[in-house]
């Protein structure tokens, strides 16, 4: 069970990820707001406690790996990394600027702490299977975490990887689906309905769970349960909200990629800082 | 590099696939980082002995090439040295984005082998006949593209790639090759091999067309034409220096490949010539056509991939000098 203090810590971390991601995107004036904000809670749980990593030694062999296959969530991943101490927070202001180490989509060769290059949807799933296999071959007991977008799982490669991960009984692989119900062009339901994602993965031989993806306690406990599962990979379907944390984004129909004016950024930060203050003083 | 031309250019006893498997087993014995991936073609590729010897280092993902490439890339990120195989079209065309991004752009360390090049796909027909595999792969920055001509070269190159870092595409004849090199020959990736000197023209060939080029050169000699023959087994990086030198010394070039001339050897050589030392040039290869089914001998005639096609182009290019 997760104590109240730790829950509070995760919640604060998640808000800080949202704040830093919004500063970076707002400073640029546009970006993938929706999917960065929806995955912040899971990233907070992962980088805020679950993952065994060392920011001073980012390529440490025995570390846990994170492959954010929905590479466009880069700003949220970078915020989590910076907050965790991989690089200075100020660097977040260089997002997508000439010569930056922080491109729109995650790049293992540019950003300290990013384990894998992603951006062409679906590909992170196979990469994660390869990493999990490689680590198992070497007898390591670390975990590979994979974050997939909900729209992303429309890609066939995800299901190729899902089949093979089950075939290989990869119990060192834990995947998350950021089920925010939306993709670039609209609602997943109206474009190519994903149906019962948990049941789909289960039918592929995975252990499945479904939790409130905005609730750090539920996310944490689902990971703990996933680690208990032997002989099969695990998927945790995170029911999330695209644009979570900034009301305007949450209420904007098309929030996958948005322009963010200075005023809007201030408005978002004001909302998020108020939530942070509330969380800290609670 | 010390390559010695075989005294007798006869069909080798051993199939290329068996030489490939043996070489990988040799490497795997010495280096536990070597892993093998396949997409349900291990039997066709003669890789069962590897599977038997190293089951834990063999990953047959089933019929899913895109996943195979991604898994290979992931394995390489953990320090493994993966060799992934499929038939040429499926090892390249089918999973190009995965090779481009998960391997190339990600700067990971993956070797991809595409078998049954061009007309050697024979009875599998047009769907399985890659005339474009090397051309597709040429678009990936910093990739190395190799087409070993016989088992001697194959063994040497595979061993070399195991100790290098990057993305490698090896275009592999699956069955018996014509022996071009004597045992013990060694090669330098990125350097063409001069198999025969000549002063009137240079024939630059790769793969099954190397033997045809040598046959053509021998027949041309009777007609009083002195043809130099180069085996350009590395398509990328292309050996500019040797191409320019040959253009200067022989004043005419003919390329010969079992591949579409578009973005294959013909294109690569032409690019070097026009930018450095333009001389008359002709190409032997597949001129923008899809593959077809049939016996290899028939297909070689049908797609104009014979020694006499090379001779014809040599005469044409010399007339243009």
UniProtKB/TrEMBL annotation, chain A:
InterPro entries referenced in this protein's UniProt entry, alphabetically: THDP-binding (IPR029061), Transketolase_N (IPR005474)
UniProt KW keywords: Thiamine pyrophosphate
Cofactor list: thiamine diphosphate
Domain Transketolase N-terminal: start-end pairs: 16-267
Keyword Transmembrane helix: no
Entry superkingdom: Bacteria
Family according to the record: Belongs to the transketolase family.
Name used for this protein in its record: Transketolase
Annotated source species: Fonticella tunisiensis
Lineage of the species this protein comes from: Bacteria, Bacillati, Bacillota, Clostridia, Eubacteriales
From TrEMBL, chain B:
Pfam families membership: Transket_pyr, Transketolase_C
Keyword Membrane annotated: no
Keyword NADP: no
Record-given protein name: Transketolase
SMART domains: Transket_pyr (SM00861)
Species of provenance: Fonticella tunisiensis
Domain Transketolase-like pyrimidine-binding: 14-180
Keywords attached to this entry: Thiamine pyrophosphate
Cofactors, names only: thiamine diphosphate
InterPro entries: PDH/Transketolase, THDP-binding, Transketo_C/PFOR_II, Transketolase-like_Pyr-bd, Transketolase_C
Highest rank taxon of the organism: Bacteria
Family: Belongs to the transketolase family.
């Amino acid at each position: 069970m997760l104590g109240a203090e730790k829950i509070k810590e995760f919640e604060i971390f998640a808000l800080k990820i949202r704040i830093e991601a919004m500063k970076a995107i707002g400073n640029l004036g546009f970006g993938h707001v929706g999917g960065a904000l929806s995955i912040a809670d899971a990233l907070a749980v992962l980088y805020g406690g679950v993952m065994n990593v060392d920011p001073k030694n980012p390529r440490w062999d025995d570390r846990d790996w994170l492959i954010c296959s929905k590479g466009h969530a880069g700003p949220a991943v970078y915020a989590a990394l910076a907050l965790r101490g991989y690089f200075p927070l100020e660097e977040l202001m260089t997002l997508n600027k000439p010569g930056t180490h922080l491109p729109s989509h995650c790049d293992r060769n540019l950003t300290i702490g990013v384990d894998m290059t992603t951006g062409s949807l679906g590909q992170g799933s196979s990469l994660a299977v390869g990493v999990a296999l490689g680590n198992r071959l070497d007898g390591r007991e670390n975990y590979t975490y994979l974050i997939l977008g909900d729209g992303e799982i429309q890609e066939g490669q995800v299901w190729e990887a899902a089949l093979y991960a089950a075939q290989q009984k990869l119990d060192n692989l834990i995947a998350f689906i950021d089920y925010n119900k939306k993709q670039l062009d609209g609602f997943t339901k109206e474009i190519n309905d994903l149906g019962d994602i948990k049941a789909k993965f289960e039918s592929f031989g995975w252990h499945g769970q479904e939790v409130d993806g905005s609730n750090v306690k539920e996310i944490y406990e689902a990971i703990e349960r996933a680690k208990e599962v032997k002989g099969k990979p695990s998927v945790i379907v995170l029911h999330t909200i695209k644009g979570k944390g900034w009301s305007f984004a949450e209420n904007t129909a098309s929030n996958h990629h948005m322009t963010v004016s200075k005023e809007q950024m201030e408005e978002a930060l004001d909302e998020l800082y108020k939530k942070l203050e509330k969380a800290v003083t609670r | 590099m010390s390559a010695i031309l075989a005294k007798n250019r006869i069909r080798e006893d051993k199939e290329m696939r068996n030489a490939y498997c043996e070489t990988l087993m040799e490497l795997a014995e010495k280096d536990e980082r070597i892993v093998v991936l396949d997409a349900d073609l291990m039997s066709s590729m003669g890789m069962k002995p590897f599977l038997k010897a190293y089951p834990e280092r063999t990953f047959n993902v089933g019929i899913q090439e895109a996943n195979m490439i991604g898994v290979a890339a992931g394995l390489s990120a953990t320090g493994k040295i993966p060799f992934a195989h499929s038939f040429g079209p499926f090892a390249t065309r089918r999973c190009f984005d995965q090779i481009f991004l998960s391997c190339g752009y990600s700067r990971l360390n993956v070797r991809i082998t595409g078998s049954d090049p061009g007309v050697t796909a024979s009875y599998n027909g047009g769907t399985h006949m890659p005339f474009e595999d090397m051309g597709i792969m040429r678009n990936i920055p910093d990739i190395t593209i190799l087409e070993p001509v016989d088992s001697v070269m194959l063994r040497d190159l595979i061993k070399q790639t195991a100790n290098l870092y990057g993305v490698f595409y090896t275009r592999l004849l699956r069955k018996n090759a014509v022996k071009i090199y004597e045992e013990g020959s060694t090669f330098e990736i990125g350097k063409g091999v001069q198999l025969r000197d000549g002063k009137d023209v240079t024939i630059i060939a790769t793969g099954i067309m190397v033997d045809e080029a040598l046959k053509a050169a021998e027949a041309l000699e009777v007609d009083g034409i002195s043809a130099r023959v180069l085996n350009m087994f590395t398509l990328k990086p292309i050996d500019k220096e040797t191409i320019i030198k040959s253009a200067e010394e022989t004043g005419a070039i003919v390329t010969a490949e079992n591949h579409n001339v578009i973005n294959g050897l013909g294109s690569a050589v032409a690019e070097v010539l026009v930018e450095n030392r333009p001389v008359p040039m002709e190409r032997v290869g597949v001129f923008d056509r899809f593959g077809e089914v049939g016996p290899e001998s028939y297909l070689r005639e049908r797609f104009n991939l014979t020694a006499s096609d090379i001779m014809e182009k040599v005469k044409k290019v010399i007339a243009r000098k």
